[in-house]
Design a protein that fits this description.
This protein is of the alpha+beta class and 453 residues long. The chain has helices at residues 4-7, 22-25, 46-58, 109-117, 133-138, 146-149, 177-183, 218-229, 264-276, 290-295, 319-330, 379-392, 414-418, 422-432; strands at 13-15, 39-42, 64-66, 82-85, 92-95, 100-104, 156-162, 168-171, 192-199, 205-208, 211-214, 237-245, 251-259, 282-283, 286-289, 306-314, 338-343, 365-373. Helix 8 packs across helix 11.
Length: 453
Amino acid sequence: MDTRALAAQFRGEIITPGSTEYEASRTIWNAMIDRRPAAIARCSGPADVRAAVRFAVDHGIYPAIRGGGHNAAGLAIVDDGLVIDLSEMKGIYVDPISRTAIAQMGLTWGEFDRETHLYGLATTGGLISTTGIAGLTLGGGVGWLMGQCGLVCDNTLSYDIVVASGELIRASPDEHADLFWALKGGGGNFGVVTSVTYRMYPITTVISGMVLHPLAHAREVLKFYRDFVMSGLPDELTVYAAALSTPDGHPVVALIPAWCGDNPAEGERLLDPLRKFGSPIADLISPMPYPAMQQMLDGVAPFGLRSYWKSSFLRDLPDAAVDTFVEFAESCTSPRSLAVLEHSHGAVSRVKLDATAFPTRSDPFDLVLISVWNNAAEDARHIDWTRRFYSAMRPWSAGSVYVNSLDQDDAARVPEAYGPNYAKLSVVKAAYDPDNRFRRNQNIRVQSQAAGN
């Protein structure tokens, strides 16, 4: 790829296979992804993004877009093509008066939280602090604060975006409102977002941690968990459950609460039944700064391991579903793998399904199966376990999926992620990206596009 025309108008760094930084620059979170771009345009700011997009259009290139590089499907990297890399764009401005933050898309959630916490503010973020804010935000954004604050996309006030025409525009309720709607969950289909304005909340200290039980007690623990979260939790309390292994390799089932209310005594009272149930082997729950909660699972999913995902929202969790979940947890093929049940309620459920591109508002559980391992020779075994687990849970599926949980082989499930909103998203896609320039994503198609494009 001849990048001289791009270099003439580019302030950042253009990395090619001969560059010293090439190998590190093409490496992303999931080690299963081993792609070799022809060029990586590491942008210094929105002007570089615009230059890279215009270069792509002029040369018939369909670029990949990299933010945090945490996506399981490896959509940030493409073989033989151009990567528009935002990872060095880490500007953030926090306004404590208006309770807003304007953030560039190279930030991770850990970096974002570090700055906003200084002002006593937070907003819904992901579960792993090394996740980029860009992909999580554009896919909708599930996180610990969603019962109180809603999804990440429910708290976006505007987007600055370079669209396929090469224009840098702002999408907000008053400007390009159709695009603003589509960016609230529609992924990277409409252009390269350079910054987002977020609504922030006065949240500094939370009550969180884990209560760990032996996996042998998982059936009783998960039935208690289901009844506990479905009993009518306040918005301030979100509780997940997960089957995973401790750092020393012991399989456990974990109950993971997050209380973000302003009355710690009330949080302690509400968590008391969860902490006293059964015979836990460890109770790690305590008050902590919000950024600490955001980092507590980082060690479970470190950078550079191999990973394969399957996921689906569940309409309910009857005893038979719990039994199936536990059977597969007991036969897990890798001690690094985890199976998570994310409960959704509160502010998320009070948003109308057509108010944002993200439509899944009433299904109570998100099943997320994340296989993680080291050895490439074991790929088939761990992928097979994940697929069989997912298939066995299908009887309780709500027929919907979180787009950020789709893996490389899930392209056919993109309409499932958007349900009744998919048709409207196709219209917006046709208006802003009629040639499907931005296709290296969980792609939304317009009606006229051939299946091979």
